[in-house]
Amino acid sequence: MSGLDKLARPAQDDRPAGREWPLYEVFVRGKRGLNHVHVGSLHAADDEMAVRHARDVYTRRNEGVSIWVVRSDAITASSPDEKDPLFAPAGDKVYRHPTFYDIPDDVPHM
C-alpha cells in the first residue's frame, strides 16, 4: 500500500464495536463577553479531543477566548416541570434581590 493510499483511508478510532464516543456540551466565552455561552454539542473520545474539536468547530473565526467542554452525562439539571417548587421559595426573600442596594457606577457588570 502506498503512502497516498494510507492518507486516503479514514483513521481507525478507539471506539469499541457498536459504541459511540461520549457526547460533550460546548461552552465558549466570546472576546467581549463575560460568560461562557452554550454553543452546541459534539462527540469525542476524551476530554482533550473534545476541546480540540470544539475549537475547530465553534471558534473557526476567532470568536472565543475560552472553551469549556463538559460530558453530557456529568450534567445534572432541574426539570422545567419543577420550576415552581424549586424557585418559588426565593420569591419571598426580597432582601436577596439587589433592589435595596446602591451599586456604584464604577462597578462594571453587576
From TrEMBL:
One of its GO terms (molecular function) is phenylacetyl-CoA 1,2-epoxidase activity. It holds the Pfam family PaaB. It is an enzyme of class 1 (oxidoreductase). Keywords: Oxidoreductase. InterPro entries: PaaB (IPR009359), PaaB_sf (IPR038693). The keyword Protein transport does not apply. Its EC number is 1.14.13.149. The keyword Oxidoreductase applies. This is 1,2-phenylacetyl-CoA epoxidase subunit B. It comes from Nocardioides agariphilus.
